[in-house]
Amino acid sequence: MSTITSETIRTPGITTMTPKRAREADPDLGIASRTRSRFSAVMSSSTPVPAMMPVISDEPDMDHDDDYELVDEDDESIIVIDADEAVPQTPLVNSAKPVTVGYPPVWAYKRQSLCSALPYFDAYQSGMYHKYGKPHGILIDQAASKRDLMLEQVVITTVGGGRDLDEAGNRVRLVDQRESNSLQCIRAALDHHYPLVIIAGIENPTTRVKVPFPYSILGIFHVTDLWQETVLAPTGQIAQWVFRLEKVDLNRPSWWAPANDPTANTYVPGQYVASIKQCATCGEASKQIFSAGWACLNKKACRDYFNFGFLVDVDALTYSNDFLCERTAFTHTADTQLPALVPELPLSPNGVDTFGTEKEYFNGIVCRLCGCCSRRKSWARWVCENPGCAFKCEGKILPIPTEIIHRENADFRASRRRSLVDPVVKIKMHGRDVGGFSTDIYYLPNDAGKIIGSLTIMRANEVICARPGGPDDMFTALQGEDLHLERNPALRAGGKREILTKHFAKNWGAKYKFGVTVASTGFEEAPDTILRATQRLRWAGERAIEKTVESFDENEDPGRDVLPSEFIQFNEMLSIGYFRDGKISYHDDGEKELGPTVATLSLGSPSVMSIRPKNRSGIQPRGNVSSRREKPAVIRFNLYHGDMVVMHGTQIHRFYEHQVIPQGKRRYALTCRYIRPELMQDEADRVAAVQKGRMPRRAEIFAYHGDMSTSGITTSVPSAMSIASAPVMSSGNIMQPIPAPTSPPTQATNTAQGNAQDFINLTAWFNDNPAAANYFAQNMPRNFIPILIALLYRLSNPLQNFIGGNQD
Ligand SMILES: O=C(O)CCC(=O)C(=O)O
Ligand SMILES: [Fe+2]
Question: Which of 455, 537, 572, 660 most suits a substitution to test ligand 1, by most atoms within 8 Å of the C-beta?
Answer without folding.
Answer: 660
